[in-house]
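Students often ask why we bother encoding 3D structure as a string. The short answer is that it lets us treat folding as translation between two languages. Here is a chain of 130 residues written in the first language.
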Amino acid sequence: MACKKNVKVRFYSRSPFGELAKLREYAATQADEAHYLANLNKGHRETNAELAVKLSLHAPNLSTYEFLNRTTFETSPELGRMESLLYERLRFIASNPRAAYDTLWKNIDQLGARLDSSNLTCSSKIGHLS
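And here it is in the second language, the structure alphabet:
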């Protein structure tokens, strides 16, 4: 993300993103990084400092302002509603939406558990879904 200027990241969670989402909203209202840093309130300064520490470990060349402006946070719906929405979307892109859903669920579950039963990378697993 740090080296590719056009990369955008979207985080999904069933829980709200709290102070980080508030900081992201604030960053979106600022004209540039200088204004962003100059106008941070106390709560935002604390969240920004925590984020800066985490970024320094994983993306040291990425500022908090740049990260926040290239990131969106989305709170996911309840599992039942999410499943319905996925089926609706899969109907348009898969001849067998149930099989596609089951395959996606299995592969995402394995990725979440850090299991790799077939030694395929994530991108090649997704390529086999169509």
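Translate back mentally: Confidence is low (pLDDT under 50) at residues 122-130. Keep this in mind for the problem set.
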